[in-house]
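User: quick one
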Amino acid sequence: MCTDSFKESLLGYLYGELTPDERRTFDAHLKTCQPCRVELAELRGVRDDLLAWAPPECRDLPSSWAVSPLAEPAPMARLRAWMPAFGLAAAAMLVLATSAAIANIEVRYGTEGLVVRTGRTVTSADAVTANAAPASAGFAPIGQGVTQADLAALEQRVMASFAPATERSGMQTVALTSDNPQLSREVRRLIEESERRTRQEMADRFLAIVSDVEGHRRADLLRVQQALGQVQSRTGAELAQTRDAVNRLLLVSQNQGQTPQR
Amino acid sequence: MSLDLGKTTDEELVDRAQRGDEDSFNELVRRWERPIYALAYRTLGREEDARDVSQETFLRAYRALRGFKGQAKFSSWLYRITLNLCRDWMRRQRRTPVSQVPEGMELSDLAGEAPDAVSVEDLVARREMSAAVSKVMAMLPEEQRTAIILKEYHGLTFQEIADMLGCPLSTVKTRLYQGLTVLRRNLQRQNLHVVAAARPALET
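Assistant: Done. Structure below.
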């Protein structure tokens, strides 16, 4: 092996802490020195091995204290800390459900062309009967050659089967075909209007939720701060008590040590 | 708070925390809790002790923050607190660091740490290697172990380690060199079976 100074250089080389000049010098030395090359390779191997040592994931890092103030029972505090998030999720579901109900758009593409419906359904049973009729009526003739007359008859049947449901629910049914640009414009307008309403509604609700969450958060933070303050003063008092007790114990034991026991 | 805490330097955060800004201190905690926990874990070798020490580190840092004048980097200051606490803890317990494969450690955890690892064999090999390293590190004398932990896992320079441990630069290098040499010998001994089984898996 080489001199101590080369050993030091080797360590610096290994960890990349040599100046460019020192590095060049050591590079030159490495070319001529087999033992140093071996040493370097082995130490690099050790460093690679060391990489495998990872600490386990810690589940209770200090920053998680914010949700578990020491003065209160941890589970309750944690639960409360989760409440805003839970509330948010529930509210989001509500918004989705509401928007779906508001929009209530149904788009289907079948033998009768593109069908777009918008409006409110009164009962699901109505919708089912309304849907079932065109489906069974519409798909059967596809295999055989379909004539214009068939289609016309089919359309009448479809309209007829829709009629009762439409009357009762105020649903608007629009048949959309390529040669009917006015209707398609109308449909697009309806859809856009519905979407705009939905977006507006969602924005309003989210604003309400955000301010609600913010309020919760502030209240929680305040409570956490108070709790921490209590803990700090309480630990201080306990420490003083413990110190006194230890002092007394020391005194007693010293006294006992001085007076002969037997 | 309109300021983006994530982009603020440690020094700025310390400055603001010293003037009573709790958010800034919390950001420092979030930034450094994992390195501090890792340092404590590798020094003490046990999860719950490492957790206690890292919590105590931040409590002490919080209390002593006004006394921190920026002589060193904030992280170095934290590291020093942690190392002192670890030393106290080991003295109190009168024992050397334990080496244990953490009980709660699942293969899925390891998978999380090694996103590139593909096969179960790979994960097992890593786990065995991790256990082997933990074992040989626990066998090192304290000064060598500390120097190696600071260098290998926290990337401190020789000079930073010297400043932190309050010893000459040459001493740090000697400890590192001796430590690495001992590790090499013991790893070779330890790993005879691990290497035979694991290395091909690691290298494929």
